Amino acid sequence: MMKQQYLTCDLLIIGGGTAGCYAAITAARRSPELQILIAEKANIKRSGCLAAGVNALNAYITEGQTVQDYLEFVRWDAEGIIRDDLVRTMAERFNEATADLEQMGLVIQKDERGRYVSRGKQNIKINGENIKPILAAQVRRYGNVRVLNHLNMTQLLLDAGRVVGAAGFSVLEEQAYAISARAVLIATGGAAGLYRPNNPGFSRHKMWYPPFNTGAGYAMGIRAGAEMTSFEMRFVAQRCKDTIAPTGTIALGAGAREVNALGEVFEQRYGLSTSGRAYGASNEAREGRGPCYLRTEGISAQQEEDLLKAYLNMAPAQTLKWIESGSLPSRQNVEVEGTEPYIVGGHTASGFWVDTRRRTTVPGLYAAGDVSGGAPKKFVTGALAEGAIAAEAVLDDLGEQSDGSQADFRALAQPVLEEYQSRLAAKSGEAFDVFALEEAMQKVMDEYAGGIRTGYRYNANQLSLARSQIASLAALAETLRAEDMDELVHIYELTDRLTVCQTLIAHLLERRETRWPGFAIHTDYPAPRAEEERYVNSRLVDGQIRVFRRELVKEGAYEHTD
Amino acid sequence: MSIRIDREACVGCGLCREVCPGNLIRADAQGRAYLKRPEECWGCASCLKECAHGAIYYYLGADIGGRGGLMQVRSAGDLTHWVITRPGEPPVTITVDRRSANKY
Questions:
Q1: Rounded CA gap, B93 and B80, in Å?
Q2: pLDDT tier for residue A402 given thresholds of 50, 70 and 90
């Protein structure tokens, strides 16, 4: 029998990655009395996107640049579909958050005058291998922050339309939790594993985005009726072939240009936006000029050594591959490929529809980092900034809130905890397990919703097929039973991914154009259309996904009014 | 993409199990670490950095170009030594100093 534990806090932070940890730090500094609880699926020391490290801060206002410059850069890169208020408020805090990280112990490269060394207009060089251990150590300095590692939250608990807590269970032991909170901040990251990945066999998890970021926060929000935005703006990353390691370090660091198999530099044909670069490589291959490479042949011995070290600090598989294959980058160009699509609000605009202070449309619920929408190109410092902004909003709102929920919290939580128990049952000859259904989901998405197989292309007919097949898989997933806690985690992860897929498909159907050809090509509408320069938003109402449009938010702050 | 744990070298300290972002490393009846689902490893190398006993090896799956090479981590203060061994080739050690930023 699964044990049950009830906990109470003021602020519950779901997800102890970059945004979640920094939200806790910000709230704890400003309010030593506030009882803060971080619920983390793994361990905050090495969880989330930065488990392996990161080798640059890609969002920094360097000397001579302004917040407005960053805003215009993001607008250009995202083809206009951004929230000005969100990008601006984030960018205003990049440098402050960076200085704070350095105070905590992050190594940042400086020149002889003590200024940060930049890598292009928005980037600075760091040694970020231990960025998560640094953030985790800082979190532990505050006595009013409690961290519960290995706790998988699955469900928000609502009372009269307001979030009053959440339920989850231990990944390791038969223990369920219901946590009541005066405010809940979602910082669970984006969603990987929706589509069949580059390496679908043994190395299926050798992907760019963390395979353990399963879209849990999106799914919890969708089920709670929160408004979502721009899921159709998927992210396809251009990465080193096989290892799916980042390419920016080679391109920006070693100055390597991208070439096709004929040795031609082709970027001018597609543009230099993130989507344009992704489209360029895939289209060159499609038209018979692939594969494409980053031209590293001829780099110096010093450059090569620096590259090998830089990758050990963020994507060690790439360094091993170079050494093991004997194809060192100075002697052989680095082949690149596009990834399967991810939903990730740190790179595109997908995620919760929030107001300027990162309140979602559900009272009591806040969002920061990759799970929050409208503000692409957050990177590390943007995730920190959003964590801080959301934490400050929570503190201000709690100050005005007179008391907590009057409802019987145990009665609210009981059905969810009972569901965990009912799922943890011996199997009785079911035809499918959770892994079979995950593979089926990835196949449907790959073939009918614009995965790698179709070169990210889809039409309305295919999307309709995807919609009905994902719905039938979601129904099958309801019947899954788990033999242990590990399998129970996988069942809830699959359910969350299927929920995200359903919203994603609805968004892809609604945007009748091709705005970001590197991320998605709607073959019924293969060009951008001026009337589509609006947000596609959605909300689950009575079990149905309602999709609607909102006009672009340009000036001033944004508040939820309808 | 995965790791291999040498159960003879493992002392059962539990540090690797604690940090794996996928909760993939578990303890056997003797308390020694094993990887529950090798195909679910992301390859972040967090466990290698925790292991003070050299019990964890990192390798590439054959589907992404692995040909028998193994990588280990030895930490010494701010220095991290990454040691790569390959069949029939001398080992390669690359040392990264935590105090120095990336050149790229």
A1: 10
A2: low
